[in-house]
Design goal:
InterPro entries: HTH_MarR-typ, MarR/SlyA-like, WH-like_DNA-bd_sf, WH_DNA-bd_sf. Helix content is 63%, strand content 8%. It is mainly alpha-helical and 179 residues long. The strands form two sheets. The chain has a two-stranded antiparallel ribbon. Helix 2 packs across helix 6 and helix 3 crosses helix 5. The protein is globular and about 60 Å long. The N and C termini lie far apart (41 Å).
Length: 179
């Protein structure tokens, strides 16, 4: 029995298991597909672009955030990467030991620290990102330009809806209701 189930196998098993449960199957399949697509694309990127540099997905996202936002505060990087400040601390330690990142205290408030890429970190990102983007292009190569546009807009709506929701439900301005 394989340890990996295909999308079709998983959906068939879920449909069988939940046949008598009152759920919104379309919503479940849509969100499940978002997660599966994210995991599949992340694993492909890690195995092809990041692994040769012994770089984890989280390490790459941290480097990316620092590269794009130019010396952000650590709390901003943790938020951007979707990780805790404690996890960021370990990632920063690893990336700093490899010579790609530096951490410095804020000159205006000692409670805050900023992250910056070293010249080696900049060189790494300038080398990695074009290859990373080429794989992004490859991953969507089966879609028409119109499908890419629809997909992008739909996923951005999901993201903005999720970002607008609080822990106890949607905020009134999100336009999302349950009932």
């Amino acid at each position: 029995m394989p340890s990996h189930h295909t999308l079709v196998e998983t959906e068939a098993a879920v449909t069988g298991r939940l046949a008598n449960v009152d759920i919104n199957a379309d919503a479940m399949h849509a969100v499940s597909s978002i997660h599966r697509a994210a995991n599949a694309s992340r694993n492909h990127m890690m195995n092809t672009v990041l692994r040769p540099h012994d770089l984890s997905w989280t390490g790459f996202v941290v480097l990316w955030s620092v590269w794009i936002f130019d010396a952000p505060e650590t709390r901003e990087v943790a938020d951007s990467a979707g990780i805790s400040k404690a996890t960021l601390s370990g990632v920063v330690k690893t990336l700093s030991a490899r010579g790609w990142l530096t951490r410095s205290q804020s000159s205006t408030d000692k409670r805050f620290a900023h992250l910056s890429l070293t010249p080696a970190g900049v060189a790494l990102m300038e080398e990695l990102f074009p290859r990373f983007n080429a794989l992004e292009e490859e991953l969507i190569s089966g879609l028409t330009p119109e499908e890419v546009d629809v997909l992008t807009k739909a996923l951005r709506k999901v993201v903005t809806t999720a970002e607008s929701m609080s822990a106890d439900g949607p905020r009134p301005e999100s336009g999302v209701t349950h009932g």
